[in-house]
Amino acid sequence: MSFMTLGFCQPILKAIADLGYNQPTDIQKQAIPAILAGKDVVAAAQTGTGKTASFVLPILERLNIERKLRGKRIRVLILTPTRELAVQVEESISQYAKNLNLSSMAMYGGVDINAQKQKLIWGVDIVVATPGRLLDLAFQRALHFDELETLVLDEADRMLDMGFIDDINKIVERLPVDRQNLLFSATISNEVRRLASTVVNKAVEIAISPKQATVAKIDQWLVTTDKTNKSALLSHLIKDNQWQQALIFIETQHGAAKLVSQLEKRGIIAESIHGGRNQANREKILKDFKSGKIKFLVATGVAARGIDIGELERVINYDLPSEVDDYIHRIGRTGRAGASGEAISLVSKDNFRELCAIESRLGHIIERKEFAEFPVKKIVPVSILNYVPKNRRT
Ligand code: AMP
What we know:
Helix 2 (about 25-35) packs parallel to helix 3. This protein has 16 helices and 14 strands. It is globular and about 65 Å long. Mean pLDDT is about 90; it is low at about 210-215. It has helices at about 10-20, 25-35, 50-65, 85-95, 115-120, 130-140, 155-160, 165-175, 190-200, 210-215, 230-240, 255-265, 280-290, 300-305, 325-330, 350-360, and strands at about 40-45, 75-80, 105, 125-130, 150-155, 180-185, 205, 220-225, 245-250, 270-275, 295-300, 315, 340-345, 365-370. The protein has 2 domains: about 5-210, Rossmann fold (3-Layer(aba) Sandwich); about 215-385, Rossmann fold (3-Layer(aba) Sandwich). By secondary structure, the chain is α/β, with parallel strands linked by helices. The structure holds adenosine monophosphate. The site of adenosine monophosphate has 15 residues, from helix 3.
């Protein structure tokens, strides 16, 4: 199956070809025909599978059939959990729509609301928004939904985790009943199903399994270590392997700042990105990381969620996340859509529970590497693979 047989118009085919996409990914093969046919879709797919293009491309194709731009009246609404993801999705739209006469914008809080209002007055076809700012603007009657054709909930599981359910409900209540609904989620938990049941209608269900999607292409390994040795071990790994770039995940803002200064003491220049930094700052850091100006970026989980860097070769879990889904998302940052990637975790004994949960989900033990310079005092046992966390969400 090729993009041409999927039925896209020339301007879209040209944009895809310019990006070097040769053929559709699994999720694209399944989702695109259903969306083009106007059906609702519920898809279990993670970042790295090409899921963004799987909904953006058919949406563009459908919008392009008829041009009817009107001030304050949007035709497509894409809801995302974070500002970074909103920006990233909007960037993808701009790339795919570069030969079309359609407009899009990212809408999120923390930045000047008036500039966003002005843009809406001029007319926007596709809005990619975080729920809070969108509601603000809707309450202020800066945008209207009466001509809305398509609603997309992107990373629905994460939106629920972040407590956006009430906002989502308030938004959905304002939308026309007759619309297309697309829901994408890394995992389809009971909560996601409940949300889907109130939003979508007779949906086509698509599941791209994690193994199919990302895990198989990513070289995962871990180093067990004592907690106190982590920053020295990380510096050693960076220098010894001559790594040129890495996205490093850490749990807390405080930990991020501390790690940056510890790395700097060892001659490694790093930056940190976390929710405590203002939006302009975060955007600048992300841009510099993408361009390679910043080589090592230490990120807390939420801040890191929407980061899409095409050539990212490596992610490092300085701390293991407490949720398995977060681990899968994180490693999905690398090895995207066919490229190979590496995911390395530094694991101390107090992470054993998280490690068991992750390895149980993966269905295999992650390869362990040892470094003679860093002998471990508190040994991390080998995981039990059928481990079920007590607080597991279904
Ligand atoms: P996503 O899963 O939407 O985060 O996309 C992951 C990455 O895959 C992005 O960098 C896209 O540019 C890229 N991508 C999407 N579709 C394709 C495709 N058909 N072929 C090659 N790369 C793709």
